[in-house]
Amino acid sequence: MTFKRFLPFILSLIVVLLTTIPMMSATKTEILWDSWGVPHIFSNNSENLFKAFGWAQTHSHGNLILRLYGQARGRAAEYWGKEYLTSDQYVRLMGIPKRAQQWYDQQNPEMRGYLDAFARGINEYVKTYPDRIDEPLKAVLPVTGVDILAHLQRVIYFHFLANPQQVASLQTTPLQGGSNGWAIAPSNSTNGKAMLLANPHLPWGDLYLWYEAHLNSPNVNTYGATLVGMPVLAIAFNDHLGWTVTVNPTDGADIYQLTLKDGGYLFDGKVLPFESETETMKIRQSNGTYIETSLSVKSSVHGVVIAEKDDRAYALRVVGLDRPDGIEQMWQMGQAKTLKDFETALKPLQLPLFNIIYADRQGNIFYLFNALVPIRSTGDWDYWQKIVPGDTSTTLWTDYHPYQDLPRLVNPPTGWLQNTNDPPWSSTYPPVLAAQNYPSYLTLSSLGKASNIFRTQRSIKLLLESEKISFEEMIDKKFSSRLEMADRLLEYLIPAARLLANPIGLEAAEVLEKWDRQTNPDSQGAALFVLWAFTLEPSGLFSRPWNEKDYLNTPTGIADFNTALAVLEGVAAQIKLLYGRLDVPWGEVARMRYGDKDLPANGGPGNLGSFQVLNLGKGKDERFQVIFGDTYIAAIEFSDPVKAKALMVYGNATQPSSSHLGDQLLLYSQGKMRPVWRTRQAIEDHLEFKEEIS
Fold first, then answer.
1. Is this model's pTM higher than 0.90 or not?
2. Which cofactors are required for activity (predicted)?
């Protein structure tokens, strides 16, 4: 009788245990760190996933993230001193902190919760491991969801679209970033599967650094990379599809010239008052005290006033400041399973720029010139690159072209798509899209006007070399460092030097003749050509300009042989003086330095036509070092299962104690990539350590 009396209780207890034990296990969020410092996050729901992603980024880049968020608040000088005052003034002038709060308030509750969770992961990591973060940087804590949106604005809208240096000089040319992107259709793939190559190029530091991660929850299983401090992946793939982005030549910021009168400005024949406010900023002193300074912020109907000269003022107008859902859009892109899903995510146009190159498991390839393009009533591209009259509503744009107006290609007959920051007309070859079918202000009217024309032509030639491309061949082509520009000029320069040059010029001609026209570490002659090309004034260099009828082989020829030979002799003498020999290997002159790593460069300047891009600045010694170029590289084949390799060139961490600071640079110097591990078994076979996040 006693047992029967307690039987219902025992059965109910068993049911509770059977149901709650799996649930308790399911609430566990794990980060599996692989041997390259890539976090693989497994979580039972999206909010916990975001929290763990914030935790993971802080583990890898905590010092950098807190500094970037402090700058995005416009309070970095208050935290760390006067060297940050210029940054704070720019952030406050652009209204980033206040707009970030407005954007946060406009997020849907779910996305607001995700932003808060990402911030919570950062805060809890620092609380758990306070000794791993530099003490002065903790002044930023606690981080909030508003900080994330402020960081997004500062990076995308006020560095990519309108960066501080160009705004200060009254120019609005978009960031001259670089990237390569390929999508190859099954018809052009040896394995009969679509393939994707992702390869952004950016500066090797600060707010431009990429971070690689693998995110798993019931709604997503995405692998890819994002800019440090961002809570979603910007370049990624899942089991169904993948995409990459490149900076596109789009006009997302304009400067208007205003005529000042009676304390206001003229607009459509009337005097309008400026909206004015004063921003107060604190500056931390070395003794720990503060001084205050103020910033007067004035705005017209066009936007914020960035300068005043005599009776003129200049106002900046930036696209997309009324579109707060860029992070949500990227999150939806990662959840897409079909091209239709993916385009549904894109159509709200919440991102103000970036070409998108896409491939999927169904065999589709897709290109979109993604941009917020103002509907303009006057002027072409060249007109809008200059300062625009602001005294009339004729030039004041207020709305954007919808998605269906943008250049777009799906499954072109050529079987491939490419972008190297060129206008959409060269996205495949022979061209399918034509500039005359779009507004003249949309972008550059031809490939011939692109500053990166040689890299674009090199990209197209690499794709045309083979009727079908294998996965490994795609990777090999990515590491092509041949300078397309050399192929246009050496056949004219070398004979001229042999005929007309002095002895040092004759020696230079012999070196250039033997050079393999690549920028590999052992390439002898690369240093001579690169320094010669950069010393010459590019405009007017070629005797034959770009011609659409010779699409891939112009411009070519040398217009002024006397100047070309004089510069060659001068550069040759300088190289011989500095390095003791004229045929010095490229890797001795150009170095890849990151953390404690110092390796010979393997790659060259993109604007000279290298597909393996490394741009250089002067180092402390008589060497040049990489400051910009290849960052994250991913090659994906949409087979079953998906096959992928990746590389984070400078490593996946910047924390001083991390072993992953620069640990992938050697692979890059060898032209190699790492396998991507996406199954739990593969990850655990290459596990560095595991964390559980409550």
1. yes
2. Ca(2+)
